[in-house]
Amino acid sequence: MLLPRTAKMLTTKQPRAGKVGPATENVDPEKEESCHAKRSSSSPQGGPKKRSAFGDITNARKNQVVAGKKEAAKAAPPKAQKAHNALGVAKNNEINLKKPTKKTPPTEPKVNPGPEKPVSVQEPKPPEERVPAVEDIDKEQLGDPYANAEYAKEIFEYMREREEKFLLPDYMEKQTDISGDMRAILVDWMVEVQENFELNHETLYLAVKLVDHYLVEVVSAREKLQLIGSTAILIASKFEERCPPCVDDFLYICDDAYKREELIAMEMSILSTLKFDINIPIPYRFLRRFAKCARASMETLTLARFLCEMTLQEYDYARESPSKLAASCLLLALTMKNLGGWTPTLQYYSGYNAQELHPLVKRLNFLLTYQPCDKLNAVRSKYSHRVFFEVAKVTPMDMLKLEETLTSS
To answer: For the segment 286-330, what is each residue's pLDDT rounded down to a tens digit?
Structure first.
C-alpha cells in the first residue's frame, strides 16, 4: 500500500547535524507542558491540533522574519556581504569605545505597591481564625439523607429570620372574656391531650402558637376557648404527625361539647385568619439544635425540655423569641448539671452570647422555684416519670449561687 506524500516526508525527515533535540530528563513539568502544547503537530489524517493560546501567531511571525532575512542574504553578492559585515563590526567597536563605563547600582528589593501586604507575625489574625474551638456539628451526619446536614445551617438561619414575623404582641388587652389564667388552663389540658395521643412535642408547641396567633386577630368568648385549642391540635397534627388523629377523636376528648360542623368551621377560620402560613418557629426545634452543639446528654436535654415546656402555660413567656428562650433553657440546664457555661460553638450557632441570656435564665430559675405545684401540674407530672429521667424532681438552684455562677463563667 502506498503512503501519502506528507506521511513519507514525516517519517523520513531526520534532524540536522549539529542540533540537539529536547532533553528527556530533568525537565520542568510546566515548561514541558507548554513545549508539548506548542510543538504538537497535527496528524497526517487531519485530526484536531492542540496548541496554547497565541502560540501559532507568534511562531508564524518569527518564521516570516527569519525567511525575510534569508532572502535578503541570498539576494546580496558575496563580496558586498563581506564588506558590509566588516564595516558593521568596526562601527560597533567604535561606539563601544566611546561609551563611558558606568557601574550598575545594586538592585534594591522591589516593594509591591498593591493593596495586599505581607502578613507579619504580630499582625492579628482574621476573626474566623481567632475564634477557638468552634466545631462543625453537621459533618458527622453528612452521609445521612434524613438529617439534611448540608442545609441545616441555612434552615435554622431561615427560621431565625421568620421569628421576626411571628413575634406576639400583648393581645390580652383586647380580649374582654379571656384572661392569662384561662389560657394557662387551656395549655395544661393541651399537654394532657398530647400525652394521651402520644403526639410529637413539636405538635404541642405549634398548637399553642396557633392559639396565640389566632387570638391576636380574633376576639373570642371563653366558651369557644377549648374548641380553639382542640382545633389547633388537629391542624398541628396534620402538619407534624405521620398519622394524625381524626376529627372524631377530638370530638371525644372534648366530651362531645362541640359538633363536627363546629370543629370543621373553626379549622377553616384559623387557617384563613393566619393565611395558611402555619410554619411558625418554635423553641423546641432550636433546643434540639443547641443541645447538639453542646454535646449534651439525653438527661440534660430532657431537663432543658422540661424548663421550656413549663413556659408554655405562662403568658409572659409567649412573647419571647423562640431561639432565645431555647438557648436560655439549655444554659440553665447546663448550669444546674454543673456542665460548664456557654461555649464558643454554642455562641456561633445560636447567635447569642452568655450575657444576653443571663436575665432570661434568672427568670426561668425563679419560675422553677416558685411555681405552685398544687394546680396545673400536667407538665410536672409528665416529667416526673422515669421515661423523662424524673427531671421535674431536680432541686432548683439558689438564686445567689446562680448569680455567682453566671458571673464567673
So the answer is: 999 999 999 999 999 999 999 999 999 999 999 999 999 999 999
Q: CA-CA distance, 194 to 189, in Å (whole number)? A: 9
List the chain domain ranges.
168-273, 283-408
What's the DSSP call for residue 139? G
pLDDT in tens, 76-94: 454 445 444 544 544 555 5
Higher model confidence: residue 173 or residue 10?
173
The CATH architecture assigned to 168-273 reads Orthogonal Bundle (1.10)
In angstroms, what CA-CA distances link 37 with 33, 113, 343? 6, 34, 55
Residue 401 contacts by C-beta under 8 Å, 6 or more apart in sequence?
none
Spatial contact of 357 and 406, defined as CB atoms under 8 Å apart:
no
- What pLDDT is recorded for position 80? 47
pLDDT at 59: 46
In the three-class reduction of DSSP (H, G, I as helix; E, B as strand; rest coil), residue 361 is classed as: helix
State the Cα–Cα distance between residues 184 and 313, nearest whole angstrom: 5
**Contact yes or no for 353/361 (Cβ under 8 A):** no
Query: DSSP secondary-structure letter at 134?
Result: -
The C-alpha cell at 251 is 370530638
DSSP letters along 255-316, please? TT-S-HHHHHHHHHHHHHHTTT------HHHHHHHHHHHTT--HHHHHHHHHHHHHTTS-GG
Picking from 116-125, 145-154, 184-193, 300-309, which range would have the lowest pLDDT averaged per residue? Answer: 116-125
283-408 falls under which CATH superfamily? Cyclin-like (1.10.472.10)
